[in-house]
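Please go through the protein record below and explain what the tokens say about the fold. Record follows.
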Amino acid sequence: FPSSSLLALGCTVKYSGYLGNWNKLFCSNGNSKYPRLMKLGKDITLWGLEIGLLSMTKGESALFILTPEYAYGQRGCPPSIPPNTTVLFKVEVLDFIDSEECDAFFELTCEQQDRLPLEKLLKVAATEREFGNYFFYKQHFKIAKDRYKRALSILRRRSSSKAEQSQINASKLLLFLNLSLTYLKLECADRALKYGELALELDQGSAKALFRCGQACLYMREYNKSRDFLARAQCIQPFNHDINNELKKLARSYKEYMEMEKEMCCQMFDRLNSYG
């Protein structure tokens, strides 16, 4: 059987299962644009398929012929799979993420977690952030947000060593920036601003944090605050297209807002004059 460490792998796989000589499809996720992340031994439990996947690398495709003892056994899986049936699987591995250390970390007590070496703590947080990135790029923003917050919970430790605290803060900065962007995607601009400002507390010169704050304020129609954040970001990165385009967007939005205000005032005065 695969080792317990290998069963901690999360993987994204495109698969199709067939009976006989590729003539009867009984399962597939080929129509899914974003196949979900599955864990070997939990979501993928077919013995032969587990062994086959663990022999593959990211981006590889393979065909597996699984005899009954490596597939559904003597009983089969009625009504789709008869007893003692050899099945065929066509698979493509899209991604692998090893969650073993994360799983082990969250089984520890708080006291045990606090005693772990910083290097291991940072590695676990980085893996959780990797999970968050995976779900973000699959546009599962709520799940991504939860994984980023889970990573932050790992980094709650404070260190008396400046060098160690600097490492912790560097990891936190990436997560604050990721959360700010994720909340923008979720259209929660106030939360996006909060995490952008937390990032600025760690790095006042972060153009990306200033940009995120500017985006959030523009979404909330806080035009002056948005202009301040974006102008500061532009000073740091004057040729950044995203920043410059956001400033143009701000100018257009503010112009439209002022024209709308002017029109409302005119309508109000027209109504007052009509009463006179």
DSSP finds ten helices and five strands in the chain. Confidence is low (pLDDT under 50) at residues 1-8.
